[in-house]
What we know:
Blueprint: E1 6-12, H1 16-25, E2 36-42, H2 49-53, E3 61-65, H3 71-81, E4 86-89, H4 99-111, E5 117-119, E6 122-125, E7 131-134, H5 140-144, E8 155-158, H6 159-165
Parallel strand pairs: 1-2, 1-4, 2-3
Antiparallel strand pairs: 4-8, 5-8, 6-7
Amino acid sequence: MSTPFLSVITVTYKDPEGLRRTLNSMRPVLNTDISFEHLVIDGTPETTAAPLSAEERPYPFRHIKEPPQGVYAAMNNGIEQSTGQILWFLNGGDRLLDVRVLQKMLNKLKQQLDLGLMAGAARMVQKTGRERIRSPKADLRSSIYGRSRISHQSVLYRRKLFSDIGMFDTRY
C-alpha cells in the first residue's frame, strides 16, 4: 500500500458520541480519490470501544491508546505516528462538512508546494446550539493578529512545517 497524502488525526477523551460523529463524517471521503489514513489518539479507550468497534473501517485506520497527557501532547503523538504529507486535526466531535471543499484545499496544496498550511472556514456550534461561521481573512497575519479567526479543524498543515518550526507546545 502506498503512503497516504492526507493523515486525519483525531484526538479524543471521554467523548464516544463526539468520536462517532467525527468517524461518520469521514464516510464521504471514501467516494473520492483522496488517499488518506485516519489516526485516533485516544486518552480513554475504555469509553470509546463502541464507536470504534461498530464496524471495520474500510480505510487505513489506527487506534492509538495513550494515557491522557493533554491535547497538545496527543496532537504531537499524532504527528509522529502519521505518514501523510498533509495533516488535518479533526478532533472528537469535529466533523467534515463538505468533502468538495476538502478536495479543493488538497488540490491547492498539491499544486503549490510552497504553501505550509491552508485554512478554510469552520462552522462553530456553541453550547446553546447557536451556529456561526468562523472564516480566516485573506492573509495569515490578519487572521491571527488580535483575535484569531482560524479554527484548528479548518487547517491543513504540510508535515514539513512541524519539522521546520517545531511541534505543539505542551504547556498550553
